[in-house]
Amino acid sequence: NAGVTQTPKFRVLKTGQSMTLLCAQDMNHEYMYWYRQDPGMGLRLIHYSVGEGTTAKGEVPDGYNVSRLKKQNFLLGLESAAPSQTSVYFCASSFQGGPNSPLHFGNGTRLTVT
Amino acid sequence: AQSVTQLGSHVSVSEGALVLLRCNYSSSVPPYLFWYVQYPNQGLQLLLKYTTGATLVKGINGFEAEFKKSETSFHLTKPSAHMSDAAEYFCAVHDRGGNKLTFGTGTQLKVEL
Fold first, then answer.
1. Dist CA A79 CA B36 (whole Å)
2. DSSP output for A17-50
3. Can you give the pLDDT at residue B2?
4. B contact test, residue of A43, A47, A93, A94 with most B CBs within 10 A
5. DSSP code of residue B96
6. Largest CA distance in chain B
7. Cα–Cα distances in Å, from B91 out to A63, A98, B22, B41, B94?
8. Rounded-to-integer distance, Cα B51 and Cα B36, Å
9. Which candidate from A50, A58, A105 shows the least CB-CB separation from B44?
10. How would you list the strands of the sheet with B64-68, edge to edge?
11. pLDDT tens across A53-69, in order?
12. A102: which chain B residues are within 8 Å (Cβ-Cβ)?
């Protein structure tokens, strides 16, 4: 049982380039989330999805887009990368959205934008 | 919006000493509260949570936390630190009726011999 898998693990982009981060979960979870982690700022929610075909904005959505075409996958896109998007990105999933459904995290993607 | 404040971005203890990591929440209505742990180069894992009922909550690896409404606190403790406890710890709050978790800024725990 792989849980939550994120690809790639590392990526370096030049300013203005685009890329897509892939998150896959094999637990049949309804909810999926994308967070970014920056030193001294904890984890901040970028976008989330409450089910296949749905997406919603989180705390810091600007500069990112997401898609949830299949229940098991949640994609995070950067259309035109900026140095401020240098961060570690974490995907998470949960069975439901309430407090009794703990989040399961992937191991992160470290993105550097030069 | 609900939020949590973690006092001390870095805490250092000796092996065998008490671990105390502080978390205060801001809410007029007691929220659901969580502690997550992040080991190097890994994602976060749930340590424990408070939703309702008993205010002293026990988690994995010998950690526990006490919900104190009068102090709006949910501090994490462990009686005796082990080297393997070295990690970053995040307090988080889940607003009642919502579906999002808001994390604190994290506390890096260092355990020294």
1. 31
2. --EEEEEEESS--SEEEEEEEETTTEEEEEEEES
3. 79
4. A43
5. T
6. 45
7. 27, 17, 9, 19, 10
8. 15
9. A105
10. B3-7, B19-26, B73-78, B64-68, B56-58
11. 999 999 999 999 999 99
12. 34, 46, 49
| One-letter identity of residue B83 | M
pLDDT tens per residue across span B29-38: 778 999 999 9
Strand ranges, E, within B2-106: 3-7, 10-14, 19-26, 32-38, 44-50, 56-58, 64-68, 73-78, 87-94, 101-103
Six token digits for residue B94 = 């889940």
Answer for the pair A91, A104: CB distance below 8 angstroms, yes or no: no
**From CA B17, how far away is CA B80, in angstroms rounded?**
5
| Residue A14, number of CB atoms within 10 A of its CB | 9
